[in-house]
Amino acid sequence: MASYLVMEPASDRRGEAALFIKDAFAPLAVVLPAVWLLWNRLWFEAAMTLCVTLFLTGAAAWAGMPQLAGIGSILIGIYVSLEGSALKIAAARRRGYEDAAIVDARSVTEAEERYYMSRSPETAPLTPIARDLPAMRPAAVQGAGLFALPGSH
């Protein structure tokens, strides 16, 4: 099972725009770290990765040791693959998202189901049907059965 970090915007705590970020190793990022970062819309991180890779390649060529460029590229790829989820979390925090929960699940669909089922009805996102219903009064005011409860006039 994998762990998913659930992040919600600070302005909307109803969960309608929640992000589910999987905490896992990214094997594609070892080989193509910049492409993986661009695929995940981490533009600044991708630009920094390209700059560092070009700098290492130039420094290795200037020093006359081209094998260092390959080693540096592999090390950058390993770093991005290990810290990819942390980079996604940092980018979401910069966009105004806050940590809401951690869910253990086999897939993102299962993580969504577990997260939304664990929420209280007051904070759960409204379905289109629930938005059209009139507001319900608390049970203490409505009464039970044929008789009203004490204090509900």
Low-confidence stretches: 126-145
Strand order of the largest sheet: 2-1-3
Residue share in helix = 40-55%
Strand tally: 3
Global mean pLDDT: 82
Largest sheet: 3 strands, antiparallel
Number of helices: 7
Structural class based on helices, strands and sheet pairing: alpha+beta
Taken in chain order, the helices and strands follow as EEHHHHEHHH
Distance between the amino and carboxyl termini: 52 Å
Percent strand equals 5-15%
Identify the overall geometry: elongated
- The value of Rg in angstroms is 24 Å
Per-chain topology:
Blueprint lengths: L1 E8 L9 E5 L3 H5 L1 H7 L3 H21 L3 H28 L2 E9 L2 H11 L9 H5 L6 H4 L11
Antiparallel strand pairs: 1-2, 1-3
Helix pairs in contact: 2-3, 3-4
Describe it.
The protein has 153 residues and is an alpha+beta fold. Helices cover 53% and strands 14% of the residues. It has 7 helices and 3 strands, in the order ββααααβααα. α2 runs antiparallel to α3 and α3 packs antiparallel against α4. The radius of gyration is 24 Å and the shape is elongated. About 13% of the residues have low confidence.
